[in-house]
Design goal:
- The complex is a heterodimer of chains A (258) and B (382).
- Chain A is α/β, with parallel strands linked by helices and 258 residues long.
- Chain A contains four helices and seven strands; from the N terminus they run H-E-H-E-H-E-E-E-H-E-E.
- Chain A has helices at residues 2-31, 59-66, 101-108, 191-208; strands at 50-51, 76-84, 125-135, 146-157, 170-181, 213-224, 230-241.
- Chain A has a seven-stranded mixed beta sheet.
- The longest helix of chain A is centred in the first third of the chain and has 30 residues, at 2-31.
- Chain B has two domains: 1-59, no CATH class; 61-145 and 169-360, no CATH class.
- Chain B has eight helices and 19 strands.
- Chain B has helices at residues 2-24, 27-32, 35-55, 147-164, 241-246, 272-297, 301-304, 357-368; strands at 65-68, 71-74, 78-81, 85-88, 93-94, 107-110, 127-133, 139-145, 176-184, 191-197, 201-208, 214-220, 224-228, 236-239, 305-306, 313-316, 327-328, 336-339, 344-347.
- The longest helix of chain B has 26 residues, at 272-297.
- Classes of the chains: A alpha/beta (258), B alpha/beta (382).
- The interface between A and B is medium-sized, with 24 and 23 residues.
Chain lengths: 258, 382
Amino acid sequence: MLRLLIGTGVVLMAVGFGAAGWQYWQGQTGDAPADLAAPEDAGLPQDWLISATGAPVPHDDVRAYLVQARFVPSRTAVVIRTALLTNLLADGETLPEASYFQILADIRAPLLAAGLCSALTPLIARECTVNAARVVEGSVDPVQGTAQFRIELVYRQQPDLADLPDLALHVLRADTVVLDLAPEDAGAASAESALAALAEAAQAACAADPGRQSCRVLRLTVDWSEGRPLAARAEIGWLEPLPEGIFAAPSLKPTPEG
Amino acid sequence: MAFGRIRLVVVSSVLLAITGLMIVRPPILDRVLPPMMSGWLDGFDSLVATRTKSARASDIPADFLADSPDGLVATGPIAALAGNRPEFISTMISGYTTRIESDIPAEITTIRPILGCLLTPPIPGTVVGYATSGKSGLPLALSTYNDGHLAAAVQIFVDAYRLTGEPKPVAGVGTAYEGYDVAVTETRAPVYLILENASGNRIWNLHLADGARIERVILLGGDHAGIANLDPVVPVEVMLQDGLAACNVRPAHPFNPGHRLNDPDAGGSLSQTEAGAPLVDHLARTTAYGIWFRDSFGVSAEETRAGFDHGTLSVVGPVPDEAGPWAVYAPLTASKIRTTQDKFFEIKGQVVEGGDFASRVQAIATSFAIGDLTTLRQGVAF
């Protein structure tokens, strides 16, 4: 009886302390502070840039411009397009009950992303992939049988012909390229052609001014619906020498020792 | 000697733990215990309640009715009588229990809502009984749903899959019927019974006193409604929430004094100004509903109404005296139910494999994903 009692007690203690230890271990790993500098930033000459006014450029914009070794969340091509739900069906398939339109559109939205990446590669992108494709909440029109979709691509840019200049001696400038096309224009025929037309316009804007060193396309947004005017815009960024009177200083960071 | 003391300590600790579990009685205990043991524990609870009641002779039913910002809430073993007077359940019905989650009826008959807006009025000489239900917290093993419920659940399933990569079963939200008890102690004349549900799916479980007769049952409101343990020859008329709305009838009752709209200072989050417009609108609705109710049934809604916003039992008729007649609890198990239902109807544990709600959800998601759920995963590892 005594052995049984002691044995039970030992087992309970082992379980109890084991659980406590596990929770402590989990807490330790969960509470570890995130590394401020992402590992892919490590190979960059510097992880900060300043704007023409001397203000620091937002970190997302710096990464969208500088990090070319991999995809980054802030360098995107977003296509908002309206499509017929029947375009999402397989051969011989029919539309389900209207209650399911929204979820069917959400699940099959990636089908509409096919062909969009080819609008960017190889023109401006070396590599492109679909990051997200979803139906826009509440956009299903059961009468028309249509829905609006938001497709987000991420891409790596084509390498620059020349090496980057000394970043510490340059500022990052940015501009927005707007592309408005009538429905009958060739570029507005499809979402794919609209994205390709915008990429071309952005690239042309970069090339238009020789003073725009290492000009890169940072973001593209296309809002396309069949038979409607196209609204598209792209953000481009380039380097310019520091204006007179501005001296760059790196952002302040704690030393590794804290 | 030492072993004897240790044994004493061990046995005492075990007995103390068992007694504690019986008194505290966590809900999980009822799930793991066989029904026989649960029934025995019910008897123990009654015994404790009786002892406690006699020890606290000053307790009155009103002590167990909270005038809260969410409405009138039964916080103890009380039922609602006409005019929403509280009374102890134990003084009106014998064998009462709220452990009905796994009760399975013997027969379910589908009924349909009436066409049009005119209900059959009470015949002269009958007593009109009116019970309302808010939330009882008594889910049943029965559920009913349609494509809208399934589509919403597929979205939840897909969103979870996108996050975890695991196909986790999704339960229906608002698909289960909730039980609510109605006891009839009126024996002087046949009862024309109006049962009004605020929202969701409701099964009214009827418990009659010896000699009580039901002339007709009217089921009002909610998404779906049914009644158990009613004589099959008694007619039932149904007007669900959408049917009432189509007839421009919107059930409404006066707020209790402590309601958040009536008394913003008593726990409500709305200021006097914010509460003003809804309060005026509610008053208009209450007045309009009162007129419709009197025109339809010939009695005042608020004078006859028995039902708190949170409670489990309404009683139609007087409080029985010592000689009775008490209402007798009629279990849902092996009962006959007449109910409206949606496109799909399900009894927990009695569904063919792949035919339950969660399986349907996964099958739809898989079908929409063209047979491969992994295509649902999105996103780049940055």
